[in-house]
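hey so u asked for the seq, here:
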Amino acid sequence: QVQLVESGGGLVQPGGSLRLSCAASADIRNILIMAWYRQAPGKQREMVAQSTTVAPPRYADSVKGRFSISRDIGKKSVYLQMGRLQPEDTAVYYCYAVSGETAYWGQGTQVTVSS
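ran it, structure tokens below
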């Protein structure tokens, strides 16, 4: 079974919004971190937003004020509400989770911001 399942990517015009969702398998316990990373063409993968159980969320400077991460611990899910999208946000977005010493990655979902 796929352990992290992502959805919500797609094509959107500049200024638009998208909401990404990621759900972890129910058998993954004690998830400390759930986060979103992205990798744009020709660039390294970067953390976009991170949610933990013990600290406020963190955001990349480039998305502060535009993106919002939220988490449903009971559903083992994390969401990324993306607003005022820009072409520079175009990337493959990856869900990430840490449980104990194990890290999990989703397969990625494409977000394309273009007119």
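The longest strand covers residues 31-39. The two ends are 37 Å apart (CA to CA).
lmk if thats what u needed
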